[in-house]
Design goal:
Elements lengths: L2 E7 L6 H8 L5 E6 L6 H7 L3 E4 L6 H11 L4 E4 L4 E3 L4 H8 L4 E10 L7 E8 L15 H10 L4 E12 L4 H7 L1 H15 L4 H10 L1
Parallel strand pairs: 1-2, 1-4, 2-3, 6-8
Antiparallel strand pairs: 4-7, 5-8, 6-7
Helix pairs in contact: 7-8
């Protein structure tokens, strides 16, 4: 089973090498979609052998992620951000899971480094299926498309790995301040809710931010 790493990036020269080092011996190809970097991000990605594509930033993380999926050729997709790394101990379980012919999605547990938060389960490992795509411009997920697909093809299974597979540093206070993540998140979610006021998931996320 060929595995494609799909990423979106912007000015990630400090964290990107750690991310790509953690997966370079696991994935069969690296797809990196850049949304406007001005640092060495693109050079670093190319030095690791990644296929690099440009995508104009439009305040929509789902759109950028879906662009990365368009370029993937592997049987399976692994989605990571530049401030995330794959835990080596979890790799054998991931490889076993994707060999399951009934598996559609493998949810992976992510541990926040430097933040007092419990591990979260994320749909970050899934088959390269044309009906699986991200939705919502912030806190983007494939879950809605997966739920729709399962209604028509219930033979597929969603599996979950119990061990932590991803380490994330992006919620550290210094990083949030430098990237102005709170202001960006609030702006994107408020704009989305004006058009989709009944979206309970986005309401909960914005409420948590407030």
């Amino acid at each position: 089973m060929a595995l494609s790493l799909c990423m979106i990036v912007k000015d990630e020269e400090e964290t990107l090498p750690h991310c790509l080092n953690s997966v370079r011996d696991v994935v069969d190809e690296m797809i990196v979609v850049d949304t406007g970097s001005r640092d060495r991000t693109l050079t670093i990605a190319e030095n690791y052998g990644a296929k690099v594509f440009s995508f104009p930033w439009n305040n929509d993380f789902a759109a950028a992620r879906n662009e990365s999926l368009q370029h993937a050729t592997g049987d399976w997709i692994l989605v990571l951000d530049a401030d995330e790394t794959l835990v080596p101990a979890a790799i054998p379980a991931m490889q076993t899971a994707i060999a399951n012919p009934a598996a559609l999605v493998i949810t992976l547990r992510r541990q926040e480094i430097g933040a007092n938060l419990p591990p979260s389960s994320l749909s970050r490992l899934f088959r390269n299926h044309p009906d699986i795509r991200f939705s919502r411009p912030y806190h983007e997920l494939i879950d809605d498309s997966v739920a729709s697909l399962l209604q028509h093809q219930p033979e597929w299974k969603v599996l979950e790995l119990p061990e932590v597979a991803i380490l994330h540093t992006g919620y550290q206070g210094k990083t949030i301040a430098q990237r102005r993540k709170v202001d960006r998140a609030r702006s994107i979610m408020e704009s989305y809710l004006k058009q989709h006021p009944d979206d309970a998931y986005m309401c909960s996320k914005l409420g948590a931010l407030y």
